[in-house]
Amino acid sequence: MAKAIRFHETGGPEVMQWEAVEVGEPAAGEVRIRHEAVGLNFADTYFRTGLYPAPLPAGMGVEASGVIEAVGPGVADFREGDRVTYTGSPLGAYSTERVMPAEHLIALPDEIGFDTAAAMTMRGLTTAYLLRRIWPLESGDTVLLQAAAGGVGLIFSQWAALLGVRVIGTVSTEAKAEVARRHGCDEVIIYTEENVSQRVRELTDGAGVRVAYDSIGATTHASSLASVGRRGLLACFGTASGPVPPIDAMRLAIAGSVYVTRPALADYIADPVERSELAGELFDHVAAGRISIEINQRYELADAVVAHRDLESGRSIGSSVFSL
């Protein structure tokens, strides 16, 4: 019988349970997938804690890769035996197999392994829209990247280097700084030891950065805003430390007519054509070796509680996956 991680109430990691589940056959527009690897993302904790509401009881996880075992009526783009990956709703990726809508699937090239796909689909597509969609970056531009040693951060710095974009990254420790540098981060600020916005201004001759990318939220919002140059952009794409505080419009004017956006991946992959374009660019870079995906933490799916504790404590570096 299939197994899955589910939660019946919101709270800490301990609310997750390893349960036997009935999967059933796919209905119209659906497929049944046997998972080979499952992605672990900070966004998963938002559902578990209730920050992102979900009807309970619920499955956990939004990213996985595997093989299609059955296809329901009306599915034209996939067939049994196809290798696929996905990220997004509905919840339930923390499972050995599941039934889900075929419209969310992305065909996985043979050159990319299942573990790699589970480690990069959400992070890679997030990087893709951050660098290729929300702001017209040009070679020579400088950007700030909070959490440069995180899963998105390590992909982001490599991709930015391909575009000629200079990255100033922030990390919490020297060990993480070394990892960030190894993946192409040009300048690294250890935020536990330095004033981030002050150092950014020093590194940009007072001008500030073109864009500040912030996935941390509450504790870094002020330093990110103070680092943006005139008519630049603050992109708040995560809330690892808590929600971003309300925006004071006059403060944006004083900061230099700064723009602010709170983008979500779902809105950049909702259009199948755009999703295919972003995924194609990502897969091409990874398959060619221009972007490397390092999996630094591996867990058994039954050990999801341990994995979430590691993730929320800040012990994780780069990407983590559940191997099946």
TrEMBL record:
Keywords: NADP, Oxidoreductase. Residues 11-322 form the Enoyl reductase (ER) domain. InterPro entries: ADH-like_C, ADH-like_N, ER, GroES-like_sf, NAD(P)-bd_dom_sf, QOR-like. It holds the Pfam family ADH_N. Transmembrane segments: none annotated. This is Quinone oxidoreductase. It comes from Gordonia sesuvii.
